[in-house]
Amino acid sequence: MIFVTAEIGINHNGDVDIAKKLIDMAKKAGCDAVKFQKRTIEKVYSKEILDSPRNSTWGSTTRDQKLGLEFEKEEYDKIDDYCKKIGIEWFASCWDIDSQLFIKQYNCKFNKVASAMLTNLELLKTIADEKKHTFIGTGMSTIDEIREAVKIFQENNCPFELMHSNSTYPTNLEETNIKCIETLRNEFKCNVGYSGHESVSYLVCVCAAVLGATSIERHITLDRSMYGSDQSASLEFAGLDRMVRNVKQVEMILGDGVKRVWDSEIPIRDKLRTI
Length: 275
What we know:
globular; TIM Barrel; alpha/beta
């Protein structure tokens, strides 16, 4: 079955109650997992960027905004407990080694390499060392850059699958280029999924499933008008619900390719083929 992850990311806006509502939404829609993003702000962003002016609920600088959106141990303890309570997997894409080591304490079943971190080889080595099934985002990356990342996971005997993606939020449909799923599968001889950032359409995810994507990741939101840079590239419940249902029907519709006469066809055959 295609593995479907609801990407919460930072769409919780620093509020655990919103995070729980998003987890509930993903569970109700039939997603297999939810995913968050974890950063050590002072390591991921330069002082110049963090000191730059940016008005938000949390203050007047980019640092205030980034820290306001970041969950720490108290929040992740609650997320871990809540996901276990309702029965859904969770994991996170970490943007630095300290964040990866922090998330490791929760013993999540999966890891994710964010597209932005594909060339951070030291981080990739830390992730691969855990030997957990890892989804590797390939947005804004060349084949050679992907090859370097894949080599690390192969050398560490860490199971992985690539995820085709376009890192524009939201992604223009003409730039989704999902035939790259086949390109990556042929080039690297591995499973390939799709991480989508389109505006309101989930059609691309369904097309990805038809092309044999083994996993689908899609940003979700309670309301696309909420504060946040990722909200407009996210699905609300109605869209997510339809997407999951349609994606998980694709394998049934495609079948196994074996030509056969179905039991349901036999009475029709007996009736119509009288000569």
